[in-house]
């Protein structure tokens, strides 16, 4: 897939019209891009885009009936003389000292009132604003009505404030007329620092070779050809190139005609802003590249995260406690009634972790749980494993993203790391571990234990009563016989042996059921912990990936189709 820069047209658009609605849509796309990446990418990378959105909105709101054209050039290029010749008035000082032009002068064709707000925004002082209106002109200047012509300070001035002023104004004007002279037209400063930077503004750029009268007539075409070669090297292919001379009105015809066409079209401001969008889009392209937004980390990476979260949450300790608690409760419910009280005196393993204890059986676990548990804190190895798992999630999610985004994805994955311990603890505390209800077979076995215990107690009581009667000399009881064994003895011994046998048969079942209870609790805890990972790690990552997708689509919309 070709990247966005490749889709930005580089062809000269000087004869093409820029649709205002389409331009506004492109600016809105840049605004959507900025909204999508807000807080995710370095602010320094976004300054040109923010500046464009603010400047473009202001420029379009101020006036579309005026065209701001700047004359820019080096000291001695004669741009001030050119400015005065176009205005046919001595408005800007002309001299040979360096620098000659220290402040920006403006000449307005048409009423000054309509241009004042625009000049205020540009920053031209009121005392340096002039109106090109005269009753003697009749309709001679009508073709330039709406033109605001600026004479900028020299960009090669020895005073840094002058250069900064030129750089500021070049970012605000609608069209730039670069004025060069035969002596310094090939100077590296103007080509490397300025003209080359305007290659995406070719349609609002015009270059004039001023003071052409200083050259022999036969040399003018040669110098123009050499200048054209330099402009092509600068990426300004197709930019109009004219020769001018301020001392001869005939030498101004071409430039004046170009300005009249610019004013009549009312396209310079739109073309300038369109070029600004092209420049900004090209600069932002490397921030989004051509990668398709990933949906997030793969299943294996998520599984690794869930295992690490389970370890940090103490799931192994809790499930071990569940297994022990099940055995503890099962033995207490199915063992000999005579020793059950002693079994209940032993602490329940889950109660030691502030998880549901014996008193919670049959109750709603969610209502009986406390807010925090006493699950052991994660070890250094478990914390390290969790950190590596989170890093793996970020790395996998950002694997195909441009260089500016992995940092944002990693920051999102770790953004709620400080809240994870409490969230995991609350999850463990609120999870139903499956021990709230007594299984039916516990009751059956417990009932049988009570039955055989009762038989043993009856047999014992019967035998004690018989011994007591004999000791008192009273008639002995007639004990029924079962075979050769008296019934009381059978009841006593049979009850005891049956209880022992029932306990022995139940014990392996209890161990098997305890392992199942542990597996069930582990499944529930893992599912709950995975939800925490989804909320605290994966969701922030997916939000960043969604922002990347929105930024990529917005920048694609902002690119010139």
Protein described:
The chain has 20 helices and 9 strands. The chain is α/β, with parallel strands linked by helices and 561 residues long. The strands form 2 sheets. Strands 3-2-4-1-5-6-7 form a 7-stranded mixed β-sheet, sandwiched between helices. A two-stranded antiparallel ribbon has the order 8-9. Helix 8 (219-233) links the parallel strand 6 (205-209) and strand 7. Helix 11 crosses helix 20 (487-558) and helix 16 packs parallel to helix 20. The radius of gyration is 45 Å and the shape is rod-shaped.
Strand content: 5-15%
Report the C-alpha radius of gyration, rounded: 45 Å
Termini separation comes to 15 Å
| Average pLDDT score | 84
Strand order of the largest sheet: 3-2-4-1-5-6-7
Helix run count: 20
Q: Helical proportion? A: 55-70%
**Largest sheet, strands/sense/barrel:** 7 strands, mixed
Provide keyphrases for this structure.
single chain; 561 residues; alpha/beta; seven-stranded mixed sheet; two-stranded antiparallel sheet; 20 helices; 57% helix; 7% strand; disordered N terminus
List the helices and strands and how they pair.
Layout: H1 4-7, H2 20-37, H3 43-62, E1 67-73, H4 79-87, E2 105-108, H5 113-122, E3 129-131, E4 147-151, H6 160-170, E5 175-180, H7 188-193, E6 205-209, H8 219-233, E7 241-243, H9 253-265, H10 268-288, H11 299-313, H12 315-334, H13 337-344, H14 349-352, H15 365-368, H16 380-397, H17 406-413, H18 420-430, H19 440-471, E8 481-482, E9 485-486, H20 487-558
Parallel strand pairs: 1-4, 1-5, 2-3, 5-6, 6-7
Antiparallel strand pairs: 2-4, 8-9
Helix pairs in contact: 2-3, 2-10, 2-20, 3-10, 10-20, 11-16, 11-20, 12-13, 12-20, 16-17, 16-20, 17-20, 18-20, 19-20
